[in-house]
Specification:
With 237 residues, the protein is an alpha/beta fold. The protein folds into 2 domains: 108 residues, Nucleotidyltransferase, domain 5 (2-Layer Sandwich), CATH 3.30.420; 88 residues, Nucleotidyltransferase, domain 5. The longest helix has 18 residues. It is globular. The termini are far apart.
């Protein structure tokens, strides 16, 4: 018997779930975000309250590591570490892009055996964070930032069917017209989809270092210097 608390805050969706042996026992999600700073702690408290009220010991905390929103990832990771320290339980870190693949694999049995999965998280302009996986989630190409155009994934499309999904995939629908390109709408990374990956890591004892592990930002945070409006109104002496 294993119970895992799941925290997912990598995009505008803030979600928390509690699973036990492949069953989702509790789930809360807010799709209207980003409201992570105000809601993540509330959702975690409710999930832990559910576990305590049902006398279910929490064995680990799983957190979506990124890539994604810098602020969202820091909130989720900090919350996960806090629970791990407080309860004395291990931390499990999961790739956000692999988490995105879970609902696709669960809902699309008709997908070809040789199909490739390309989950995408919106970055800026025509840029996305993506990776390429087989149906067994074996990496074909690692996580990287891609500037998307008609040729970005041509090599993979020439091999066979490719499925694009995630909030970054909307940028491709008018750009890629290849017959092997398939687009799946309304796929978001959510805590309730984390348990298949988290339970596998728990069994294998693949834990992250609670003290030193960090989110996978992929890119460094770029702070924008605010414009001094008043200075622009004052003439130079």
């Amino acid at each position: 018997m294993s119970c895992i608390l799941h925290i997912e805050t990598s995009t505008k969706v803030c979600s928390v779930a509690l699973s036990e042996n492949g069953v989702c026992l509790f789930e809360k999600a807010d799709m209207e975000g980003p409201n992570h700073a105000s809601l993540c702690g509330v959702f975690v408290e409710e999930a832990l309250g559910f576990a305590n009220s049902h006398a279910i010991p929490v064995d680990a905390v799983a957190v979506s590591e990124g890539p994604g929103s810098y602020t969202g990832l820091r909130i989720g990771y900090s919350m996960a570490k806090g629970v791990c320290y407080g309860y004395g339980i291990p931390l499990i870190s999961l790739s956000t892009l692999q988490v995105l693949c879970v609902p696709v694999l669960l809902r699309h049995d008709e997908m070809e055996d040789d199909a490739l999965l390309i989950p995408m998280i919106d970055a800026r302009r025509m840029e996305v964070y993506s990776a390429v996986y087989t149906r067994a989630l074996k990496p074909v190409r690692g996580v990287q930032a891609d500037v998307v155009d008609a040729d970005t994934y041509r090599d993979y499309l020439e091999r066979g069917p490719v499925y694009f999904f995630g909030d970054g995939s909307a940028k491709l629908t008018s750009v890629i017209q290849h017959p092997n390109a398939h687009f799946i709408d309304k796929i978001t990374p959510q805590a309730k989809y984390m348990f298949p990956l988290a339970e596998r890591k728990l069994v294998c004892q693949e834990f992250a270092d609670v003290a030193y592990s960090e989110p996978f930002y992929l890119k460094e945070f770029e702070a924008v210097k605010p414009k001094n409006i008043l200075s622009s109104l004052v003439p130079n002496p």
